[in-house]
């Protein structure tokens, strides 16, 4: 390193260093680190209690057990009885959960903490911690005492937890892993990585969600290992009867989350880490992206083709080439001479513009962002105080330290110009963080970490989340009360409070279509419901069939966007010829018909913590064979799909959960609780609607807010018994729903052999009401003689297709058909 350089100045030669330390780690997990003696907790000698916190000690080391609620208990380990700062980026701030009651008793061999649903047993001999149901069934038990070893790299500890694993236990969760849904028999690590063209089973990927669900004997529980260092999970891979998780630093700290329903575990995980706010309605429409649409004429042409061909679309994306030399917050004026005009013209035509922003800031003394960052010391520095530098798209770059609230605040304000230009959403990429050549930052880079300070080992996995958090906060302020739209590639647990996510640089292959189906289900049950893949595949060339099948899956992806790499051929819905265009159009239109249904699923996610995509294992965990099913999944509460993932596929086997289900395209009724062989013509896919449900429908629009909707169409599917469906409505743009300005309609359906009753009640203060309802009834097992709505007799009508419907010209409470 040049002697002349002063601390805090730019160290150019750092770039030439072959700093491969992180890359080395990626391929050589902890196994290659020279063996250091492991230390284990010993025998519990005593404990102290303070409120809902218990501290047990063996004389040297201690653990803390905190009862967060009747179902959530946290365990922390302190090898020298000194607990680290109790701070977490994952846990939401306004956490408002409390135990209703708990007690502790001491027996000859254990301390037993008991809530109304769970028993936490700390065995004195060996210091083993276990969690049980009240009936004594063990859900999760230490197989070895918690242990640690001195970390030779930095003087902290590697920390380990090893649990006993029964032969039937299945595992789910961990975010974006590109493997089978059931994680058993596999080992994973979390280290956010830019993994262009990743493969099946490749690990690590872009995101760190150290949360898993175990299901054993039909009962489920969850573990959230809240640690931002490089973490590992081994689900009975090395030892068939052991599950371990460990970390290269930080504290062994985990939350045990009781079920026994998997759905409840997921909801409780959301209780800790939060949910996604209601996205603006346009964000759940169809989005068109590529790397990159430019110049302006090209953007306008793509947009006008959508309108000309009458294919709905709500957003168009500008990838890195819109910037001036890849400088964030600038425009390339040659390509986009008047961005404000372009964006407002697009907006007049119903298109929102979303732009890319990366973390790397070009080292350029003539660039205001660099100068502001430099003056205020907002950029990350190495252990020796030189600025962290690396090459990314703009060339030589420095990188903001988003773990500093001041830096986040500043970064948020940088969006002002873009917001004034009319930009509607922001896409944060490369925030693992990714650096050309060396992969990411070297370990010695220091971070503010909210004043607690730490090296990159500790901050790496939350860097991207803090970046998009600052984007979200900034946009929220700049846009007044309008809901931001953000999307991020890197993530840590809890990122859902600030952003949607996509799965990064996938490949245009059938295998990747399947990987996407696995990843989105997994993300959804890991707290990140607002997720999508690059439809069609980022790299490589899909043919018309793959593209179209992927588009069909896209309709049932919470985030629906086509995207592709810079060197690929055209990827618009019409790019593969008229035959494929027609099918893509039909399916994008289906997305728009389902908008109120999808919007409701987002609401149920936000308010009731229900994941949007639901694997079969989550719906019916009591059947062991269901723990292996992974191609069919529920999308919201009432629709089940099984995307087609093979070329030339004529039919596919689909499992339907208990109940009766209607094939979407012809309303054939099928019995659930079994598999069916379903035909898969190219212009259809296996989509099933639950008997007993109400599916609201909008007319096809070219973009989400195109028309005012006065008549709401409700499709009611008869089912024997009592069912509840929801329909959520608001004006789609502000946070007024937080003040109850919304409508959530509850429909209670009672289906009998000779009658059907629909009772509606409405929650919320939103005053826009529909003038009328057009109610289609599907699957009635009887002939209709009598229709009554709130005391009035109505006539029954039949439409052109012979479908039976009723028009109700007012807000109704009770409708009976017999
Ligand atoms: O080094 O901005 O995953 O979606 O199109 C590649 C260009 C950087 C990676 C993203 C991809 C995006 C691309 N980016």
Q: Can you give me a brief rundown of this structure?
A:
By secondary structure, the chain is an alpha+beta fold. Helices cover 18% and strands 30% of the residues. The site of ligand MIG has 10 residues, from loops.
Describe the protein in words.
Keywords: Glycosidase, Hydrolase. Belongs to the glycosyl hydrolase 31 family. It is a single chain. 18% of the residues lie in helices and 30% in strands. It has 13 helices and 54 strands. A hairpin with a 4-residue loop joins β9 and β10. The longest helix is centred in the middle third of the chain and has 23 residues, at 456-478. It binds ligand MIG.
- What gap, in angstroms, lies between the N and C termini? 86 Å
What structural class results from the helix and strand content? alpha+beta
CATH topology heading of one domain: TIM Barrel
State the share of residues found in helices, binned by percent. 10-25%
For the record, the CATH class of one domain is Alpha Beta
Q: Give the ligands present.
A: ligand MIG
How is the secondary structure organized here?
Layout: H1 21-27, E1 39-40, E2 46-50, E3 53-57, E4 62-67, E5 72-78, E6 102-106, E7 110-115, E8 118-123, E9 129-133, E10 138-141, E11 147-150, E12 157-164, E13 170-173, E14 186-190, E15 207-208, E16 211-216, E17 219-225, E18 231-235, E19 242-247, E20 253-258, H2 262-273, E21 286-288, H3 296-309, E22 315-318, H4 339-348, E23 352-357, E24 361-362, H5 368-375, E25 390-392, E26 395-398, H6 405-413, H7 416-421, E27 425-428, E28 446-447, E29 454-455, H8 456-478, E30 486-488, E31 491-492, E32 500-502, H9 510-525, E33 531-532, E34 534-535, H10 544-555, E35 560-562, H11 578-593, H12 595-608, E36 613-615, H13 616-619, E37 633-635, E38 639-641, E39 651-656, E40 660-663, E41 669-671, E42 674-679, E43 687-690, E44 694-697, E45 711-717, E46 721-729, E47 743-751, E48 756-763, E49 772-778, E50 787-789, E51 792-794, E52 797-798, E53 804-808, E54 814-817
Parallel strand pairs: 15-31, 21-22, 21-35, 22-23, 23-27, 27-30, 30-32, 32-33, 34-35, 45-49
Antiparallel strand pairs: 1-11, 2-3, 3-4, 4-5, 5-20, 6-7, 7-8, 8-9, 9-10, 11-12, 12-19, 13-16, 14-18, 16-17, 17-20, 18-19, 24-26, 25-26, 28-29, 36-37, 37-38, 38-43, 39-42, 40-41, 40-43, 44-45, 46-47, 47-48, 48-54, 49-53, 50-51, 50-54, 52-53
Helix pairs in contact: 6-8, 10-11
The structure holds ligand MIG.
């Amino acid at each position: 390193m040049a002697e002349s350089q002063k601390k805090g100045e730019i160290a150019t030669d750092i770039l030439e260093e072959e700093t491969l330390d992180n890359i080395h780690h990626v391929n050589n997990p902890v196994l290659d680190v020279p063996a250091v003696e492991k230390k284990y907790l010993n025998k519990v000698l005593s404990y102290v209690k303070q409120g809902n916190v218990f501290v047990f000690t063996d004389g040297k080391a201690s653990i803390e057990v905190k009862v967060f609620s009747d179902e959530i208990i946290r365990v922390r380990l302190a090898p020298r009885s000194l607990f680290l700062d109790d701070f977490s980026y994952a846990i939401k701030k306004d956490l408002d959960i409390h135990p209703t009651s708990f007690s502790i008793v001491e027996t000859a061999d254990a301390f037993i903490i008991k809530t109304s649903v769970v028993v936490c047993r700390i065995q004195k001999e060996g210091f083993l911690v276990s969690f049980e149901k009240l009936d004594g069934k063990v859900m999760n038990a230490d197989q070895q005492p918690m242990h640690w070893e001195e970390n030779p790299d930095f003087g902290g500890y590697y920390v380990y937890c090893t649990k006993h694993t029964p032969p039937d236990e299945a595992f789910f969760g961990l975010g974006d892993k590109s493997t089978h849904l059931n994680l058993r028999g596999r080992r994973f690590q979390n280290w956010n990585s830019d993994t262009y063209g990743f493969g099946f089973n490749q690990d690590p990927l872009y995101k760190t969600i150290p949360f898993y669900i175990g299901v054993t004997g039909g009962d489920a529980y969850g573990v959230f290992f809240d640690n931002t260092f490089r973490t590992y999970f081994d689900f009975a891979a090395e030892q068939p009867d052991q599950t371990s998780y460990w970390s290269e630093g930080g504290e062994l700290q985990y939350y045990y989350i009781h079920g026994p329903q998997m759905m409840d575990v997921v909801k409780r995980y959301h209780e800790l880490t939060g949910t996604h706010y209601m996205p603006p309605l346009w964000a759940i429409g169809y989005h068109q992206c590529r790397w990159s649409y430019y110049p302006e004429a090209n953007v306008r042409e793509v947009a006008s083709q959508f309108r000309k061909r009458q294919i709905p679309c709500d957003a168009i994306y500008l990838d890195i080439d819109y910037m001036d030399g890849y400088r964030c917050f600038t425009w390339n004026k040659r390509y986009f001479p008047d961005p404000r005009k372009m964006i407002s013209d697009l907006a007049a035509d119903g298109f929102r513009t979303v732009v890319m922003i990366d973390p790397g800031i070009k080292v350029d003394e003539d660039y205001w962002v660099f100068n502001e960052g430099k003056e205020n010391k907002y950029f990350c520095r190495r252990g020796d105080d030189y600025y962290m530098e690396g090459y990314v798209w703009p060339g030589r770059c420095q990188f903001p330290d988003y773990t500093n609230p001041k830096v986040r605040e500043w970064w948020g304000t940088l969006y002002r110009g873009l917001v004034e230009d009319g930009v509607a959403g922001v896409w944060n990429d490369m925030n693992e963080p990714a650096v050309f050549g060396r992969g990411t930052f070297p370990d010695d880079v220091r971070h503010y970490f909210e004043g607690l300070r730490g090296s990159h080992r500790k901050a790496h996995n939350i860097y991207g989340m803090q970046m998009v958090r600052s984007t979200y906060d900034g946009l929220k302020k700049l846009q007044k009360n309008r809901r931001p739209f953000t999307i991020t590639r890197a993530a840590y647990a809890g990122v859902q409070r600030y952003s949607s996510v996509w799965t990064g640089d996938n490949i245009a292959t059938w295998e990747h279509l399947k990987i996407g189906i696995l990843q989105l289900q997994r993300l959804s049950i890991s707290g990140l419901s607002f997720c999508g893949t690059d439809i069609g595949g980022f790299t490589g060339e899909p043919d018309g069939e793959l593209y179209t099948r992927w588009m069909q899956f896209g309709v049932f992806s919470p985030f629906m966007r086509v995207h592709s790499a810079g060197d690929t051929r055209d990827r618009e819905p019409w790019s593969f010829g008229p035959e494929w265009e027609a099918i893509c159009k039909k399916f994008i239109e289906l997305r728009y018909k389902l908008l109120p249904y999808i919007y409701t699923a987002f609401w149920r996610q936000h308010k009731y913590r229900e994941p949007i995509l639901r694997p079969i294992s989550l719906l019916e965990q009591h059947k062991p064979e269901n723990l292996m099913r992974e191609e069919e999944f529920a999308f919201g509460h009432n629709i089940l799909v099984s995307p087609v993932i093979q070329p030339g596929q004529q039919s596919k086997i689909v499992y339907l959960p208990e109940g009766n289900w209607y094939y979407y395209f012809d309303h054939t009724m099928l019995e659930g609780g079994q598999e069916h062989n379903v035909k898969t013509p190219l212009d259809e896919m296996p989509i099933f609607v639950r008997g007993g449900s109400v599916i609201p429908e909008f007319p096809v629009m070219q973009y989400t807010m195109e028309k005012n909707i006065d008549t709401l169409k409700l499709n009611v599917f008869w089912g024997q018994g009592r069912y509840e469906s929801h329909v959520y409505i608001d004006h789609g743009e502000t946070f007024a729903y937080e003040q109850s300005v919304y409508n959530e309609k509850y429909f209670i359906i009672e289906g009998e052999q000779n009658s059907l009753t629909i009772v509606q009640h409405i929650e919320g203060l939103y005053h826009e009401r529909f003038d009328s309802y057009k109610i289609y009834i599907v699957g009635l097992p009887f002939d209709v003689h009598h229709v009554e709505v709130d005391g009035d007799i109505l006539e029954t009508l039949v439409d052109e297709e012979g479908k039976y419907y009723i028009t109700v010209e007012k807000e109704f409470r009770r409708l009976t058909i017999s």
